Amino acid sequence: MGGRMNRTTFRLAILAGLVFLCSLFAIGAQWAPFSHAAHPVAFAGMRGVPGAALFNGMVFVLPGLLLVLGGGRLRAALPVQTRWQPRIGATLLMLSAMAFAAQGLLPLDPEDIDAGTSSLHATAWTVWWIAFATGAVLYARASLVEHLVAVGAVLLVLLITLFGREWMPAGIAQRVAFSVWFGWFVYAAWCERR
């Protein structure tokens, strides 16, 4: 069963990333003012934007839920004698995926960008990267390479999320951070698959 579970986890991670990327570009292209370089991902899912519910569902909610399932499978695949750190790490990775999905359920409100669902969206975004930063490092357990990949992914997400706007357009920075997050999940699932 372990091999089948690990293959399924790997497929869930790949599927989540593909759904995110394809939906981001295909559905995002339906709204002309949407710029991948200038706008955050959630811009095309703001209240009042045509197709916002579909965009939020396909870009945030579905990929997030797929990774919640994947994170649960990563946790379930841990051997019984595993230390507490990877177990808590896997739980935090699931929280990160839930927070990613929540961004689609709490769309930005262009009429009230600093309060209401906009502030809840920002909170979900913050929980997304904090839970990932902690969870990935705690989860990596098998080898020095896995630890280095986890630390590298976390540092990259943190640097781009917090300071990326200094080096690149804000929209590009956010997309790179999300892509690194998806990529780390794929890598973690691949490591479990072996």
From TrEMBL:
<dbReference type="InterPro" id="IPR009339">
    <property type="entry name" value="DUF998"/>
</dbReference>
<dbReference type="Pfam" id="PF06197">
    <property type="entry name" value="DUF998"/>
</dbReference>
<feature type="transmembrane region" description="Helical">
    <location>
        <begin position="53"/>
        <end position="76"/>
    </location>
</feature>
<feature type="transmembrane region" description="Helical">
    <location>
        <begin position="120"/>
        <end position="140"/>
    </location>
</feature>
<feature type="transmembrane region" description="Helical">
    <location>
        <begin position="147"/>
        <end position="164"/>
    </location>
</feature>
<feature type="transmembrane region" description="Helical">
    <location>
        <begin position="170"/>
        <end position="190"/>
    </location>
</feature>
<keyword id="KW-0812">Transmembrane</keyword>
<keyword id="KW-0472">Membrane</keyword>
<protein>
    <submittedName>
        <fullName>DUF998 domain-containing protein</fullName>
    </submittedName>
</protein>
<feature type="transmembrane region" description="Helical">
    <location>
        <begin position="88"/>
        <end position="108"/>
    </location>
</feature>
<keyword id="KW-1133">Transmembrane helix</keyword>
